[in-house]
Amino acid sequence: MAGRGKLIAVIGDEDTCTGFLLGGVGELNKNRKPNFLVVEKDTSITEIEETFKSFLARDDIGIILINQFIAEMIRHAIDGHMLSIPAVLEIPSKEHPYDASKDSILRRAKGMFSAEDFR
Amino acid sequence: MKDDVSLRLDGCLLRFMDQLESLEEKRQRFNSLIEQGWFSISKARYAMGNKQVSALQYGSEIQPQVRVCVRELTGGVTEFQAEREETQGSEDPKTKDDVEDCGPMEGGLRRRTTAKTKNPQEEPVPVKECVSKDDVRLESKGLQRHQDPLKWFGILVPQSLKQAQVAFRQVIELSAEIAALQGAVISTREELHNLLEEKRRQSH
Questions:
Q1: Of A69-78, B56-65, B85-94, B149-158, which one has max mean pLDDT?
Q2: Looking at residue B125, what is its pLDDT?
Q3: SS3 state at B64
Q4: Which DSSP helix (H) or strand (E) runs through B17?
Q5: From the centroid of its chain, how far is CA B3?
Q6: What ranges do the domains of chain B cover?
Q7: Which stretch of A88-102, B87-101, B157-171 has the lowest confidence by average pLDDT?
Q8: Of A53, B8, B19, B46, which is most buried by a Cβ count within 10 Å?
Q9: Beta-carbon contacts of residue B138 (< 8 Å; ≥ 6 apart)
Q10: Chain A residues with CB inside 8 Å of B35's CB?
Q11: How far is A27 from chain B (nearest CA, A)?
Q12: Hey, which residues 132-161 in chain B have their CB within 8 Å of chain A?
């Protein structure tokens, strides 16, 4: 598996998941576990968080794409992930455009320029 | 000594700014491409019917066509590169047979002519052999069905769904580039932080 490269996982609304699966990122492994989660109105935050954590724990996943409005629901879990692999990318959704000020990576980068650093 | 640290700090800060600028550009391209993809999906849904393009149509067997090669470079920087497995398969003669069976696919016109040229060659072949070839074709068709996610939504899918697929393929490649850049931004930020600390220690 390591020689073949890693997978891209997706947590998003139906259209986002459909698009990325059309692009060819989807996988159902031998245990029938998918590398994507379609978040619908009735999907609980616990389920989203558990799926996100299970993706973090999988060593065959290199990038996790997550709609920003879903990332907002599990912000604490995303902020707690400090490793470079898997990389977490916050992406826009149809109803919620991308807001750079909410992105955990850019917020970390912005934190560089606080008054404390230049004292 | 202090000037040396200041110079390194300046260089690091400039690199950091460049990386942020590049990240911003890639993000804009990513956002416009993904919007294009959603728009094409919506058009396909309008053409095919509301329930024809949804999660219910996902295949029962899903195999990845794209993987990311992850390499850890020196300095804690991680490089991500999207690699499409499909390109190897497209050179395979099996795929030609698949397209013959399915008819209108991308570049169908060119392939239809190959089908016509093949038919006269197959005429003198005994019937038994033809049947066995058809079986092979069906098998390869079955494999292709698993591989090409477009076929989850039907054989004759609208052009807009194919456009959506193209847009999302570009989005996937960009997402690998953005992931690599994000890693580089975080790494440069760490370096910048360390240099600031060093400068502070020297000034005291």
A1: A69-78
A2: 45
A3: coil
A4: helix B2-48
A5: 46
A6: 1-49+68-75+155-203
A7: B87-101
A8: B19
A9: B101
A10: 92
A11: 5
A12: 149-150, 161
Confidence of residue B102 (pLDDT cuts 50, 70, 90): very low
- The 8-class DSSP code of residue A28 comes to B
B44 has a chain A CB within 8 A of its CB: no
- Residue B32: list chain A partners with CB under 8 A: none
Copy the structure tokens of residue A63.
Answer: 């990038």
CB contact under 8 A, B168 and A22: yes
Token code pair at residue B116: 């016509």
DSSP code of residue B79: E
CATH class, range A7-110: alpha beta
Determine, for residues B66 and A23 on separate chains, whether the beta-carbon distance falls below 8 Å.
yes
3-state secondary structure of A77: helix
- B79 strand-pairing partners: B71
Pairwise CB contact (< 8 Å): A7 & B54: no
* B171–A6 CB contact, under 8 Å: no
Residues 6+ positions from B148 with CB-CB distance below 8 Å: none
pTM of the full structure: 0.78
pLDDT value at B87 more than 50: no
Q: Give the burial class of A7: count Cβ atoms within 10 A of its Cβ; 0-12 exposed, 13-18 middle, 19 or more buried.
A: buried
Residue B56 Cα, gap to closest chain A Cα (Å): 10
Q: Does pLDDT of B139 surpass 90? A: no
Which residues 75-104 in chain B show a CB within 8 A of chain A? Answer: 76, 78, 80, 82-84, 86
> Which chain A residues are within 8 Å of B196, Cβ to Cβ?
117-118
The pLDDT value given to residue B114: 57
- Joined together, the tokens standing for residue B129 give 């052999």
Whether A48 has a pLDDT exceeding 50, the answer reads: yes
